[in-house]
Amino acid sequence: MSAPEVAEAAEEPGRPDEESGWSEADDDRTAETLQWLKVKRKAHRRQQGRDLAVLLYCVVLGGLAYGSGIAVHFLRGLDEGAGYGRYGADLQRGLPALFTAVAVVLGLLAARDALWRGPVVLPGPAVGWLLAQPVRRAAVLRPWLRLSAGLSLIPGVLVGLVGGVTLRVTGLAPIGEALPAVLPAALCLPLLAVALGMAVERRPGWARRVRRWTAPAVLLVGALAA
């Protein structure tokens, strides 16, 4: 190969060497490694599933035991005409600042978290062993990114439900209109926070901007809360 051809081949990873017939794809062991790891983790994941099922059972049982009484008391107060409506005007005036503050705080937390950890969090064995193997890193990292994005939706949905109920009990909107109004933001904001964290984690320039603009963002949140 001539010098220009060698340079061109070096600039294109995975391009086969015309003389030796070798390419980086020949050393790619992603499928075999992940399949072997899946087999080795099967028993551990089965035990994790049992532990998670027990945890969810305890949470549901505790929620039914303690939350049902609170819910009954709350609904009885609504039926008896409890004066939650007097907070409606104050809440309506504070909603724009509240939504802005929540969005800024969520973005700030995601960006700061990405400076040292980020949304893609791998277990220690995967970092110490798996990424050192001849595997495609995207195939290893993307499932963990999808897991982080999925888990971020859980608190978002819960906060959206609380927001919808709050709008209902303060008389600002019926529940059928309140939930469709708040759930889009409750679903999109966590995903945007994960995307922001991923961008900060990947780009050093973004990380420098986060460090520079953290203090002004905190001052903005304080001004909105005042």
Structural write-up:
This protein is an all-alpha fold. The chain has a domain at 85-226. Helices cover 78% and strands 0% of the residues. It has seven helices and no strands. It has helices at residues 3-11, 30-79, 88-116, 124-128, 137-169, 175-202, 204-225. Helix 3 (88-116) packs parallel to helix 6 (175-202) and helix 5 runs antiparallel to helix 6. The longest helix has 50 residues, at 30-79.
Short description:
The chain is mainly alpha-helical and 226 residues long.
Helix/strand layout:
Layout: H1 3-11, H2 30-79, H3 88-116, H4 124-128, H5 137-169, H6 175-202, H7 204-225
Helix pairs in contact: 3-6, 3-7, 5-6, 6-7
What is the radius of gyration? 25 Å
Large-scale geometry:
flat
Instruction: Provide the succession of SSEs.
Output: HHHHHHH
Helix content: over 70%
Number of strands: 0
Main beta sheet, described? none
* Structural class estimated from helices and strands: mainly alpha
Average pLDDT for all residues: 76
Which stretches are low in confidence, meaning pLDDT under 50 for 5 or more residues running?
Answer: 1-14
Number of helices: 7
**Distance between the first and last residues' Cα:** 69 Å
Strand content: under 5%
Keywords for this entry:
226 residues, mainly alpha, 78% helix, 0% strand, disordered N terminus
